[in-house]
Amino acid sequence: MRSVRTAVLVLVICAVARPARADITAFLGANVTPSGRSATGFAVGFGLLVVAFEFEYSSTSEDLQAGAPSLKSGMGNVLLQTPTAISGLQPYFTVGGGIYDESLNGQSDTSFGTNIGGGVKISVAGPLRVRVDYRVFGLGSGALYSPAHRFYVGLNLKF
Fold first, then answer.
1. pTM: predicted TM-score of the whole model, two decimal places
2. Which of 59, 120, 127, 129 is a plausible cystine mate for 156, CB 3.0–4.6 Å?
3. DSSP state of 66
4. Does the domain formed by 19-158 have CATH 3.40.50.460?
């Protein structure tokens, strides 16, 4: 009898489970700490209904005149998001951590950093979406500028 209940439970779980989703984003934006510089990068994500995981790489060039360092980061993030788009919008909140490298005029600081932020994925057509994102990066004690703020807009492909 116990094996029958287990089999029925497994069948019910399989019947109601939604398939996992993945997406990839290529983005352009601005790191605005301490001055505005372009930021580029990509994110690859995998999610279940409300919780998703992503890896993100971002690169910002240095500006010697403004004394603004370059910033490269590789972060693993957890996203909490609506299970589906609402009127074409899927808002999300994210938090994560990873490695960053901040460099200015040949001096460099590489350490662990964190990030927190949020945004929205906007449906365009089919699996194509526009992603708008804001992040605050907490960098280690050796960083010249912490926190660092970044805004971006990207093309997102859901599959």
1. 0.85
2. 129
3. T
4. no
